[in-house]
Amino acid sequence: MVTIDDKINLFSRIIYDEVNEKIKYKLDELEKTEEETIKKEEREIEEYRNRNIKKINEKAKSKLEKEILKLRVKEQKEILNLKENIINEVLYSLRKKVVEFTNSTEYMEYINRHLDNTLKNIKSKNDIIIYFNKRDMERLSQFIREKNIEVSYETKDIIGGYIIQDKNNKFRIDCSLDKSIKDCKEKIGISITELFM
Questions:
Q1: Cβ of 12: how many Cβ atoms within 10 Å?
Q2: What whole-number distance in Å separates Cα of residue 49 and Cα of residue 34?
Q3: Residue 162 backbone dihedrals phi, psi, to 5 degrees
Q4: Which of 37, 62, 92, 194 sits in a 20 to 30 Å window from 113, CA-based?
Q5: Per-residue DSSP letters for 69-122?
Q6: Could you list the residue ranges forming a coiled coil in this record (predicted)?
Q7: Ramachandran region, residue 65 (left: φ > 0; alpha: ψ -120 to 50; beta: rest)
Q8: Does the model's pTM come out above 0.90?
Q9: pLDDT digit string (tens) for 43-67?
Q10: C-alpha span between 132 and 159 (Å, rounded)
């Protein structure tokens, strides 16, 4: 026969099993929720870490690119300064050689021949004025008298050569050695630039 104690025990066991099952269900649910929360947090942490790594990499790359650009600009400026210095040195040497040339007998032959050729191409020699530097005007006085050309006694500040201009200021022919040096500057610049390529 079943006693009250047995019934209480049976009832207790049933309640205990039910409670135990509910607790197990709740624990499983809690564990599952906890697992999902942990995974979600891990994903968020991973995404945050990846975003920060990406930002740090982008900042580092940007900073590196800026530094490289600064160095390239600095290098280009240094190369440009070097080119300018070389051009100026070459022009200085050229100018020095040209000044030496103006002291030679070859220069007088050159200027007589060159001026004679230029005058052949001018139709009306009466309408022109020729400008020389003071020294050449003195040295070419005989040539000027022979050709019967008008010379301006307003001397030009040129190394050598001459400048021809008509009286009406319609044309001007610059055959000065300064102009020749200036024309050489571009060629010298191109040659020096090619050296750096």
A1: 10
A2: 22
A3: -160, 165
A4: 92
A5: HHHHHHHHHHHHHHHHHHHHHHHHHHHHHHHHHHTSHHHHHHHHHHHHHHHHT-
A6: 16-77
A7: alpha
A8: no
A9: 999 998 888 888 999 999 999 999 9
A10: 9
DSSP 119-157: HHT-S-GGGEEEE--HHHHHHTHHHHHHHT--B-SS---
Q: Name the DSSP letter for residue 159.
A: S
Sign of the dihedral defined by the CA atoms of residues 97, 119, 166, 187, in that order: negative
CA end-to-end distance (rounded Å), the chain: 114
In sequence order, the β-bridge partners of residue 165 are 129, 172
- Please name the amino acid found at residue 40: K
